[in-house]
Design brief:
Layout: E1 6-9, H1 13-25, E2 30-33, H2 35-46, H3 50-68, H4 70-80, H5 93-105, H6 107-115, H7 117-120, H8 128-137, H9 140-146
Parallel strand pairs: 1-2
């Protein structure tokens, strides 16, 4: 312990308790919570806000639809120059915000794709889910919340 001056852990209660005991016993050792874990917890809390959760859910449905249909994925690739939307991971809240940022950067290309002749002549444009997603991608209120 003579060479240890600083300990960084996540801020789960058991680690906080351990850190306090360590600091009491060894006055030259300091503890700080992991910044990445703190940011993760903040994003998790932000993600619980109704308007954020709804926006993320809409973005996830758009992304899921695109990635679950190879023809649509190919079409979006043509409209974005091969820059695809980041898919959200199940357990990491940061990925939800990366997905939103990625979608925002492709905002106009998504709208162009859903308004293209290729889309309008496809089977997907006639399906309920396809109509819903086209409507959502063209709603300015959705993009305001994404931004």
């Amino acid at each position: 312990m003579a060479n240890v001056v600083h300990v960084i852990t996540d801020n789960a209660s058991n680690y906080v308790l351990f850190a306090k005991l360590l600091e009491e016993k060894h006055k030259t050792i300091f503890w700080t919570p992991c910044v990445a874990h703190c940011i993760y917890l903040m994003l998790k809390d932000i993600g619980k806000l109704d308007w954020v959760k709804n926006t993320v859910d809409h973005a996830k449905s758009i992304t899921k639809f695109i990635y679950n249909h190879s023809w649509v994925l190919s079409l979006i690739g043509r409209h974005t120059g091969g820059r695809y939307i980041i898919r959200p991971a199940i357990t990491r809240f940061a990925s939800h915000f990366l997905t939103l940022q990625s979608m925002l950067s492709q905002h106009r290309n998504l709208q162009k794709m859903f308004s293209s002749d290729d889309w309008n002549e496809s089977q997907w444009s006639l399906k309920k889910e396809g109509k819903y997603l086209k409507k959502k991608v063209n709603e300015e209120i959705f993009w305001e919340k994404v931004g």
